Amino acid sequence: MTASELTYLRGFSGFAVPDLEAARGFYRDVLGLDVVDNPMGLLEITLPGGAMVIVYPKEDHEPAVFTILNLAVADIELSVDALVERGVEMLRYDGFEQDERGIVHGGGMPTGGWFADPAGNVIAVMEA
């Protein structure tokens, strides 16, 4: 390999939380994702399709003002109902017409909605 060549081995994303234990429980038990401990004291979440995201502790964490994670589902209504049954509260935003479940249908947007993890990070669930 020469200095002008660039080869990536893999890619992954990451985000912060103030409490790794709360994040572990939420992403594993509520969302049903594969969560494992990383040797560096982080969490690794394997997303559907095989991509990975790391979650790291940050005491002075402030939630992002944007969606940090998007999860695609086959049926948005059934998925939102399942999330709500697991204690998730769907978020509502001014400027978006959302139904009684908090789901946006059309209007130039993907059909879906948003909710927050225990750290206040926003996650979208959208119909594929």
From TrEMBL:
Transmembrane intervals: none
VOC domain boundaries: 5-128
SUPFAM superfamilies xref list: Glyoxalase/Bleomycin resistance protein/Dihydroxybiphenyl dioxygenase
Any one Pfam family match given in the protein's UniProt record, by short name: Glyoxalase
PROSITE patterns recorded: VOC
Protein name from the UniProt record: Glyoxalase
